[in-house]
């Protein structure tokens, strides 16, 4: 009977203690949760500050790097120009030797005319505006009957003696990189006897019944030739149908090498051939490209030396190099596939991107001199 009575007060005495313990535990848990939430907010704020500072630092570094790169490139360009001015090399704006004009055209009666002077030997030459190669010959003689059926190879047709006369149409500087490092001067020559074909084709493309173009028609033709799309279509048809014999004369204004020149030519041809794989994707064109690359497996090309890329009436290509002076042209080789020379010529004449924009514009102005004269009269004036 005593046991139940004794246990009841004891249980009653223990209940407040348990309640107090529960309150203490609940209070401890709540305080811990608040502390954790406070710590997470602080850590998140610190992380945001770190990310913001890191982004600002990286942005500042990138901007400083770009500014430093541009400044270094500008200083390098100035140093190259100063060095070329000191040594007489490379830049288009440098002074040419005495008594040689730096301009390539003069204005007569509102029309541009190519400036022609005489060198020490009395030969007609055209100023280039460059101090390393100040003059280009107005005419060159190349023995290059590329379409003579009696000869099976071009090597037999190119000799050191005087041959077919070619007349300069226009010239310009080939520059590379965004700071404009000058590499070589390139001039387009057309066989003097074929200038009438060039005149006829271009004049008829503007006015089918005309034999010469008036100023407004000349302006229309100039716009077409300078237009990336219309110009390429016009030169493409002319190279394919007119049967012009022509030469690209290349004269480096700084020391270079055959591989560097080859890489520029090959990249240009590959870029254009990739646009029409159906026309240029066969094995024959691939073999022609391989043979063309092999022509340039040589060493250095000193400045002022002459390289000729010669295109025959049917489009066959011959490459010559003058390593020893005048009339010492060595035949490097020939490519019979006309598609290769076709694309190579277009690289200088037309399209949205050409190897030399100054050369393209200069050639167009040279063409304007031809088309303002009656068809067939230019050749007699040159001769």
UniProtKB/TrEMBL annotation:
Keywords: Isomerase, Membrane, Transmembrane, Transmembrane helix
InterPro entries: Chalcone_isomerase, Chalcone_isomerase_3-sand, Chalcone_isomerase_sf
Gene3D superfamilies in the record: 3.50.70.10
Domain of life the protein comes from: Eukaryota
Record-level Gene Ontology MF annotations: intramolecular lyase activity
The keyword Transmembrane appears for this protein: yes
Transmembrane residue ranges: 56-74
Domain Chalcone isomerase: 164-364
Protein name: Chalcone isomerase, subgroup
Naturally occurring in which organism (per UniProt): Cordyceps fumosorosea (strain ARSEF 2679)
């Amino acid at each position: 009977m005593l046991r139940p009575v004794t246990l009841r007060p004891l249980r009653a005495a223990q209940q407040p203690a348990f309640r107090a313990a529960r309150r203490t535990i609940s209070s401890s848990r709540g305080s811990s949760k608040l502390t954790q939430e406070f710590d997470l907010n602080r850590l998140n704020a610190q992380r945001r500050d770190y990310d913001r500072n890191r982004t600002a630092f990286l942005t500042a570094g990138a901007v400083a790097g770009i500014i430093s790169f541009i400044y270094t490139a500008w200083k390098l360009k100035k140093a190259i120009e100063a060095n070329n001015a000191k040594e007489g090399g490379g830049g288009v704006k440098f002074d040419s030797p005495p008594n040689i004009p730096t301009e390539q055209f003069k204005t007569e009666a509102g029309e541009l005319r190519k400036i022609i002077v005489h060198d020490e030997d009395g030969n007609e030459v055209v100023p280039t505006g460059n101090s390393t190669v100040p003059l280009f010959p107005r005419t060159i003689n190349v023995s290059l009957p590329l379409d003579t059926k009696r000869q099976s190879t071009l090597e037999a047709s190119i000799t050191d003696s005087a041959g077919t006369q070619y007349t300069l149409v226009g010239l310009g500087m080939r520059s590379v990189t965004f700071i404009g490092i000058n590499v070589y001067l390139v001039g387009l020559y057309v066989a003097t006897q074929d200038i009438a074909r060039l005149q006829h084709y271009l004049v008829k493309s503007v006015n089918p019944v005309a034999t010469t173009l008036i100023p407004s028609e000349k302006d229309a033709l100039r716009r077409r030739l300078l237009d990336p799309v219309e110009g390429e279509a016009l030169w493409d048809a002319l190279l394919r149908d007119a049967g012009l014999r022509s030469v690209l004369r290349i004269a480096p204004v700084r020391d270079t090498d055959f591989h560097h020149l080859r890489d520029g030519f090959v990249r240009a041809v590959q870029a254009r051939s990739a646009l029409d794989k159906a026309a240029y994707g066969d094995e024959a064109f691939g073999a022609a490209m391989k043979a063309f690359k092999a022509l340039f497996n040589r060493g250095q090309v000193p400045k002022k030396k002459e390289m000729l890329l010669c295109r025959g009436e049917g489009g066959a290509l011959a490459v010559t190099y003058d390593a020893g002076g005048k009339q010492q042209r060595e035949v490097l080789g020939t490519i019979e596939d006309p598609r290769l020379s076709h694309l190579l010529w277009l690289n200088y004449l037309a399209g949205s991107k050409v190897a030399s924009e100054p050369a393209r514009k200069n050639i167009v102005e040279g063409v304007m001199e031809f088309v303002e004269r009656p068809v067939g009269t230019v050749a007699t004036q040159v001769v």
